[in-house]
């Protein structure tokens, strides 16, 4: 009976999937010396130098306190720096941070290849999009 409840529970299943993928991502991004969230934060900064801390949180779907801790850690490692403009904190990559760009891309590609090999590339891409859309709906960002 419990087995059926667990298989039919989105909460349980999503958390299980999250744990499995977190382990895979941590394994892949370890070669760059970054957590997956740290790597994605750097990717966002590369794309938009001077991005605000608030926008980073929105893009990465992280709480402000989590973004603050992550930024402080990455500043401490010399990968990014921030400039304050009034009440806004803008984030920029350093040369050291920018030097990781190609390695981060390889880690990202390796992660996608790894789960694609297990799930099939098409299914992996499809389920990723479906989960993203489901997350938006559950957050109230999209109508059905």
UniProtKB/TrEMBL annotation:
SMART domains: HTH_MARR (SM00347). It holds the Pfam family MarR. It comes from the Bacteria. It comes from Saccharibacillus alkalitolerans. This is Winged helix-turn-helix transcriptional regulator. Keywords: DNA-binding, Transcription, Transcription regulation. The keyword Ribonucleoprotein does not apply. Gene3D superfamilies: Winged helix-like DNA-binding domain superfamily/Winged helix DNA-binding domain. The keyword Transcription regulation applies. Residues 27-123 form the HTH marR-type domain. InterPro entries: HTH_MarR-typ, WH-like_DNA-bd_sf, WH_DNA-bd_sf. PANTHER family: TRANSCRIPTIONAL REGULATOR, MARR, TRANSCRIPTIONAL REPRESSOR OF EMRAB OPERON.
């Amino acid at each position: 009976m419990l087995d059926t409840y667990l298989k039919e529970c989105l909460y349980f299943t999503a958390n299980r999937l999250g744990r499995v993928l977190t382990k895979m991502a941590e394994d892949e991004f370890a070669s760059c010396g970054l957590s997956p969230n740290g790597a994605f934060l750097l990717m966002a900064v590369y794309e938009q130098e001077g991005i605000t801390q608030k926008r980073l949180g929105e893009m990465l779907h992280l709480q402000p306190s989590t973004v603050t801790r992550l930024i402080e850690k990455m500043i401490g490692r010399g990968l990014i720096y921030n400039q304050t403009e009034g009440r806004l904190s803008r984030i920029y990559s350093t040369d050291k941070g920018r030097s990781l760009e190609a390695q981060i891309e390889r880690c990202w590609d390796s992660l996608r290849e790894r789960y694609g090999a297990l799930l099939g590339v098409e299914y992996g891409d499809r389920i990723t999009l479906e989960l993203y859309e489901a997350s938006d709906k559950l957050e109230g960002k999209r109508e059905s």
